Amino acid sequence: MALSKVGVVATAQTELRPAWSNAQHIDLISSVVTSVFKGTGLTIDDVDFVIDSGSDVLDGRSISNCGFLGALGAHHKEEARVEEDGLWGALYGVNKIRSGASSIGLIVAYSKPSESAVDLYWNSQVEPFYQRPVGFGQRAASGIQAQRYLASTGVTQQELAALVSQRWAAAAANGGIEIDEIPDAQAVLGSDESAAPLTKLMLSRPVDGAVAMLIAREDIARRVSRNPAFITGMGTSLDSHSYAERDGGQLVSAQKAAAMAYRNAGWTSAEADLAEISASSVVGELMAIEALGLAEQGKGLSVTQSEKIVINRSGGALPADLIMATGLVRLAEASRQLAQPQPYGTAPSRAIVHGAGGVCMQNNCVFTLEV
């Protein structure tokens, strides 16, 4: 028996800001949960289950989602917590609907890293006896990754800086992200050193915010949405916890996740019109592009200006990394681009969505979307 199709019915998200100082987690969550139903004809009563993604460590307390159940609309409903990026929450929700157990699901992901010491958050995820005491974490691992990548490919810091500037400009044009000034390449190069050869602006910028998404069985999606994007393939893979044991030249787990997603979608290759990709650094984005099969290994930079596929029209994660929710934001952005194509050229019909988690993109999740 064929699995039922699942469509993205609606999405909503707050503005993504370096700090939402005048709003608490519960305010951000309730805002998107209220907004996501507008124009759909659906209400919270129609929802069969709620899945939320967030981090107890970033929130500063255990089982933190218990304090947000009302805002999530999860009162007297089946509710589950996925302690990973919201794209994994969406994967769980899609499988629940495909199994026939449910018809409509609400996926919510949120984060307020402005209230946490983000470096310590990443540091808490590494080996506790040798790595954690010396401060190893996201920045150090990203620096090592970048050193290897630049040495093997010949890509320069200037080229990385130009791509970062391009991503910030795209984010400003797309809207929904608080940006005071778009840094040019010189500003990127001149920002504080973070982990050589990466400067501060070459790493993704943590932001506060929340995102909500309604997913539904095909017949419901077609009834309540004018042009729903359907999730046709999903894949996920986890690399070694020890960074030293991974292949430093490529994101193997992203390759495996992509292969699984394409196979499930019936794709023979990564032929899509657009891609929304997560990354912890600008080099991480290039490696993800290559792992997804959009470019040969070491040639990721070459397709960032390609007319064949648009990559990170939204700006991606570099200007706005909503930790624990960045992948779900990418899914929301891709579904909106498919549902409301640009007023020029051929309308896009297929998209690739990528989410990442763990230190230096240890975990990877890939979706394919089609209209």
The count of DSSP E runs of length 2 or more, i.e. the number of strands, is 12
Counting structural domains, the number is 2
State the helix count.
12
In percent, how much strand structure appears in the residues?
Answer: 15-25%
Strand line-up in the sheet with most strands? 3-2-4-7-1-8-12-11-9-10
Quaternary status of these chains?
single chain
Q: What number is the mean pLDDT?
A: 95
Q: Give the helices and strands as they follow along the chain.
A: EHEHHEHEHHHHEEEHEHEHEHEE
- Spatial gap, N to C terminus: 22 Å
Share of helix, binned? 25-40%
- Give me the CATH superfamily of the largest domain: Thiolase/Chalcone synthase
> Mind telling me which CATH architecture of the largest domain this is?
3-Layer(aba) Sandwich
Structural class: alpha/beta
Largest sheet: 10 strands, mixed
What features would you describe in this structure?
This protein is of the alpha/beta class and 371 residues long. The chain has 2 domains: 131 residues, 3-Layer(aba) Sandwich (Peroxisomal Thiolase, Chain A, domain 1), CATH 3.40.47; 142 residues, Peroxisomal Thiolase, Chain A, domain 1 (3-Layer(aba) Sandwich). Helix content is 33%, strand content 19%. Helix 4 packs across helix 12.
